[in-house]
Amino acid sequence: VVGASTGGPQVLQRLLGDLPGDFPAPVALVQHINPAFAESLVGWLQASSKLKVQMAKDGDALVPGTVLLAPPQFHLLVAQRGRVTLKQGEPKDGHLPSASLLLESAAKSYGKRTVGVLLTGMGTDGADGMVAIKGAGGKLFIDLGHAHHGSAVDLVHLALLEHVHEVAHGAGDD
After folding, report:
1. Which of 32, 75, 95, 146 is catalytic?
2. Most-buried pick from 30, 34, 93, 173 (CB within 10 A)?
3. Among this protein's residues, is 125 annotated catalytic?
4. Is residue 32 flagged as an active site residue?
5. 63-105 pLDDT per residue, tens
6. Whether the Cβ atoms of residue 154 and residue 130 lie closer than 8 Å to each other
7. Reported pTM
8. Residue among 60, 125, 143, 154 flagged as catalytic
9. Does the active-site annotation cover 105?
């Protein structure tokens, strides 16, 4: 599961572009973006990835090699039995969709098999979710190269230093 904020699309493009088409796990993702650009983001990421990238719909199955992007104005949650649900509601940490809610739901459903990735950003969205994944015994990856002081990435790094792995800078660069 991936949460991304400011600067996320470029990092996501590199990250997803580096994954093989037969990647053995599904990817669910929250990207803070203007709703008018969400569909364009799906197409742009699809064009640079060997994975299938699509806007999540309520009840979609989590399928290896597929990326489900949270649609604007809906929280994307990992439900039991390998499916996602979309939930309308109030913003969490100022965001709808919320990376924290996605990460927390994945930790609850998949426990120690959860891999959380937190990219970029200036706000605190995602910090609570990364703590939940750590508590469930999952693995954490953060992007320190784009962290702002006080951001979720920065807070997770400081609080869970011995439990996180840094996302490689310039992944996919020649």
Report:
1. 32
2. 30
3. yes
4. yes
5. 999 999 999 999 999 998 899 999 999 999 889 999 999 999 9
6. no
7. 0.86
8. 125
9. no
